[in-house]
Amino acid sequence: MAEAVGAAILGAIGAGGAATATVIGSINLATVVGYVATTALSGAVMRHLAPDIGSITGNQGRLISGPSSVASQQYVYGQIRKGGTIVFMDSSGQSNKFLHTVIALAGHECEEVGDIYVNDEIVTLDADGYVTGDTWKSKIRVLKHDGTQTTATDNFTNAATNLADTLIADTSAGISFVGQGIAYLYTVLERDGDVFAGGVPQITAVMKGRKVYDPRTTSKAYSNNAALCIRDYITTDFGWGDSDVDDTYFTTAANDCDDDITLASGGTQKRYTIDGIVDASQTRGDIVSDMMTACSGELFRGSGKWKLKVGVFTASVASLDLDDLRGGINLQTRTGIADGFNAILGKFVFGGKQSDGGGDWIETEYTAIESQIFVDQDGGQENTLDFALPFTTDPARAERLAKLTLYRSREQMTLTAEFGLGAASLEVGDTVDLTVSKYGWTAKLFEVVEWRLLVSETEGVRVALTLRETSADAYDWNADETAFAANDTNLPDFSTVPAVGIDLSDEARILSEKLLNVLLVDVSASPADLVDYVEVEYKLTSASTFTRLSFGELGLFELIDASRAEYDVRARAVNVFGVKGEYTTVSGFQVSATDGPPADVTGLGFEVIDNSLILRWTPVSDLDLSYYAIRHSVETSGASWSGATTAEAKIARPGVSHTLPLRAGTYHIRSYDKGGIPSQNYTSVVVGAEYLPTYATTTTQSDAPAFSGTKAGVSVASSALRLTAPVSANDSGTYEFSNYIDTTSARMVWARVKATVARLDDGTGTFDELAGDLDSLEGLFDDLGGGRQVADQNVTFDIATTTDDPAGSPTWSGWLPFRAGNFYGRAFKFRVTLTTEADDITPNITALDAVLEY
Length: 854
Fold this sequence. Notes:
Distance between the termini: 77 Å
Structural class: mainly beta
CATH class of the domain at 698-853: Mainly Beta
Strand content: 35-45%
Radius of gyration: 50 Å
Helix content: under 10%
Largest sheet: 8 strands, antiparallel
Oligomer: single chain
CATH architecture of the domain at 698-853: Sandwich
Number of strands: 55
């Protein structure tokens, strides 16, 4: 897909380097020459980079009506109080008793010409337009016109003797003045030295301005919705006159502007409105920038159309990580002191009647938004932005816009990087999340503030993005307006340090062939973004002082080669100001990852090849596994681990098979860790007699129960052969069979010994000395509770051979240890060795046979 898109782009550019009008997704390639760039035209957050905007542009003389032959046209969006340009002024009557004026308010139709102010006082007009009341004594008449008039409505030529009758004759306006498409006031003042002692008063009107197109309804109507007013200015002739607008974006923006925001003082207000004056003498760029202050918005051009996003937090639309990068990251963690302001103040027009709690549309300062936290972050240097809001008339909205601007400006981390085509569908104003582990970023949120498509024959197609960090908190409108009035920004105090949480665990780990305990310390905190780093310390619970383990970002810390002991661990957070929080301590954690038995062996099976038995099993995965042990019992049912003899004492890991001489019976296997601890259970498999080969001759020498052979350190008790009591650890004894087996001529034979063995605890003494109830004792009565499944005793076998006549003067070989096997000779004799590893424990042999087959 990436190659196809890249080929399409390069194809669009062509050999000459210029692109044809090609659109891929939302990428407009019509103007590609090396790269395509998209940036936000304006945004309230970025306005601090422009010259000081403390004065409300276009507001000079707003409440003054005066004559001018070069006055610029003015246009009204939303609701505002304003004067206008006196486009006609004449007098009539005897001694010029009457003064006539036409005051042009706006160069377009308006929704309404509302309240009339004379000087700074709202006046009441009667049905004929006369100003009533004791102050003006009906000496002023005001006729309103909203620009919809199509015929002359003010008869300037009718004769009259005074203002109270009809309009005055002999004015130069004649009878044909219509003023079509212009909102204006026609005023007549009757000269009176007492009423007009201060001179001619200023007459202004509160107006509801232009009717604007709404793509949601496909109709045109009055609205102060900020997105709709901006759209109107872009498309209208006195604005940019550009019809290329993306109404999908403007619809979304208009809906965001219409959100009802709950006020702390009660009630709601629309999120963003535009209420103000556009003066044709301003540059169009300045006008749009001013309009953007009312919605904290960003206007940009993409896919050949104008698009608008207003100041509302949006969720991430894409997840980026190192795999998406096509180069290095240029990261700016903070803006310069000149741009990183920490307080905001400015002016707005305070709308509404004073009697209703308004400000009579007088320009005034909104409550300054200040933060000592930000001042401290900036090294104690105050840096105030003079931020005017020329299209905002509500004090709560003004303060909130200022707060929003301050908060967004403090998201200071900015990065530029080149990404693959996966970022091609992004646009300015989109929110993305970026994961870069070396910076500690996991889905960190950024806003796209610049987008460029780079095309290179050597490096292919890349997308260069400029990203600025953002967060939902920066757009939070739910602050208390009263708090703003008290200059409380609700920002966290610089001394705020979150408490940390500690989660302890341990694990076994092999390092350089050594088994180690590792103490794992997982440190967390909320909110994590207030933590610069954490300090972690530990000690043995029995110790008195802590030792530094490490410091670093939130997450996992490790104590390698911890002792098998109890530990205390504590940690604390440090914020970006170096303020250290309180320690959180976890006490008495037992490190024992290498304690406990390894897993039981599973998957034990066998195969027989001639006189060999191959045992196989599934490997045990424990890190501390050391070896496996195999024991053999002649019994094919009910066989136990303790009643077996050792077939192989140690099979080192990672062995998963072992070959033994073939014997019938039960084979047991157990795993052992590096501390010699066996698995909790043994695993068994039975090899039946049917697996043994068939021989023509079988000769057996049975010595039980008399056991009349040669004894050394062993004795017979209760028809069983055992170590002579008292038994101590590491005692051993031997028993040589009472007779040899003579095969009458030298030959190869298969020899084996069959011994029925049990573990006997000889220390229990009499029944009176047994601990607990008889029903709770292990094993049978005959072994006095010695039936524990441990391998602390054993029986091994030896064989000696001769090729001579054993009845004469034979020469015997030395004793050879064996389990079963092929031997050459005429006569064979056998011996068993009994051993123990514990006091009072002995093998107890109840059946003992030597077997030769040939």
